[in-house]
Fold this sequence. Notes:
The chain is of the alpha/beta class. It contains 15 helices and eleven strands.
Amino acid sequence: MKKWLKHHYDHLMxxxxxxxxxxxxxxxxxxxxxxxLHSDGIRHNLNPKILPIEVFLALGLLFVAILKMTGxxxxxxxxxxxxxxxxxLRGCFLAYGILIIISFFFPxxxxxxxxxxxxxxxxxGGLGLERIFVHQLHRFFIKKEIGTKRILVYGAGETGNRLxxxxxxxxKLGYKVVGFVDDHKFQDNPPNSxxxxxxxxxxxxxxxxxxxxxxxxxxxxxTMPSAPSERISHIIDSCNGSLPKYRFVPSMSSVKLQxxxxxxxxxxxxxxxxxxxxxxxxNLSKRIFDIVFSVLVLIATAPILAMIALRIKMDSKGPILFxxxxxxxxxxxxxxxxxxxxxxxxxxxxxxxxxxxxxxxxPFGRLLRKxxxxxxxxxxxxxxxxxxxxxxxxxxxxxVDTYNELQRQRLSVKPGITGLWQISPDRHRPxxxxxxxxxxxxxxxxxxxxxxxxxxxxxxxxxxx
Length: 465
């Protein structure tokens, strides 16, 4: 049974997703109608007619079809499922527009404006909560190794090892690395070859067909970004017919692929560098949100801020706030504020502590760092315009001075209090090593993504208490 579930897992999850979506949509349509019936003070129709059940059932199918059309069923393997949520929002608004048109031409499908408004506002939230439940169900299957993809990694170099560590640290992605394939590092005794506690080097490329059969491999990731074209052709020839699926992974230390976009000229692939333009409307809306959100946070946490300040004074000698020069947008220096978590004799421009047992950290400072409450004064930086609520973390100047051209792209936006790096499994690594997360945010920044990152940050903060 488990083997059958594993083999048909993708189809099973797709069916469950469609079924749950359909039930939620039908339920919300009935609930919005119930709200309409009980809105006596604002409902104009004094003699409402109960709509036939078959109308709601048909509308549910229509909504599901629209969600499929907007890409809401394209499985996204990412830290945050932004594309999925965008597709749901687009699908809801598109369905609402189509419903208005249908109601105009078919009186039997008539929905009042009030009921339509109820459904429009409730539907995205309902579908979003239902998707969270489905994702938790997916994680349950992953833990049972039902929905897990077993993979080989060809290339036990830097890129291959970073890929393995990343996949191991994010189990919800659903990948289990069974081992490496490497022509140069493979020894005569495979069980004794490997990289410390990581996956073993199981064989060479010539053994990949036998390895795929022996370890029930679903896919192989090829991590040889600098291989010459002749070598790539040989790899492709060896993989064809030997593996169900294989994919190439670019260098994870150079993310220049994020700058490239592909076009086609009568079937001929063309590559060009993406042109990044500052959007005045997006910057303005982001600034307004930053100000409103920061004011609300500072007001809501005022008693907590006062208690933290008092406790810092009681804990050790020195100022309440820690001030440090950081590099902001376009390389501009600014003074960043945090609650002091280290002893005053500590070098303020040394590398940031990576462990709670660092002797520079005060006893109360450990709690502040664990819960991220030491970051609260940075909302003052947001109000001053030096930072944003969401964005890449600001670095110290002596580290920024070592940036290469690619890393300096982090400075193209305002630094943030939180960001993709903070909610990623790489959050314990130095800031400048989370470059791929920062570039991913810069490339895909939106109001919806900011809301998701803020929500995930709050969850991390609560878990840390």
